[in-house]
Amino acid sequence: MMTDRHFYEPAQGHGLPHDPLNAIIGPRPIGWISTRAANGVLNLAPYSFFNAFNYTPPLIGFSSIGRKDSLRNIEATGEFVWNLATRPLAEAMNASCAAAPPEVDEFQLAGLTPGASRIVGAPRVEESPVSFECRRTQIIRLQSAAGVDTDTWLVLGEVVGVHIAQSMLRDGIYDTAGSQTILRGGGPADYFEITPDALFRMRRPAYP
Ligand SMILES: Cc1cc2nc3c(=O)[nH]c(=O)nc-3n(C[C@H](O)[C@H](O)[C@H](O)COP(=O)(O)O)c2cc1C
């Protein structure tokens, strides 16, 4: 029966050429996560199952689908750094997602410079205009509605240090519209870039 809605139960398949989930929940901000392994090897990888979850203390998190190097390093050291991915850094961000073995430093792979952090041992991406130094708060193995463990881990951390390039501040206010932040869309290759014309303003209604 044709209706004006395509309905599906994900457990039974989506019935479309591509799974639309990522295209619908998108564009998503990118958690470009740098870590240092217990043996000192640096690691860098993008995660678009990423967001901020609290103001005070500031908490951010990303989902590792499978036990990846970033997750293992954060389990071992309790620390990570989030870096802002911008249009000039898009290709380097993409290069850093290579499924390289743990002994490979993705900073070298992507031609990026590890910058010293102030509080944590994990490095910043020096070329990125914004970095958050983070301490792990919780690592939660995700479950299905039936309580079955998935192979996905939600990694949450408290932001304990914030680096912002002065060029990102206009009269002291962070300039999202001018940031050239990139976001992940759906499909194998879609990204979006924040541009000033994408901005609109709306205040919350007063109540009553
Ligand atoms: C834009 C982008 C977003 C990604 N988002 C995720 C994600 O949310 N979760 C995930 O597990 N992998 C994600 N990946 C794939 C990882 O970056 C990739 O598996 C990487 O090799 C993991 O690196 P690591 O083992 O050094 O942590 C993404 C890749 C790209 C390019």
UniProtKB/TrEMBL annotation:
Residues 25-171 form the Flavin reductase like domain. GO terms for molecular function: FMN binding; oxidoreductase activity, acting on the CH-NH group of donors, NAD or NADP as acceptor. This is Flavin reductase family protein. It comes from Duganella callida.
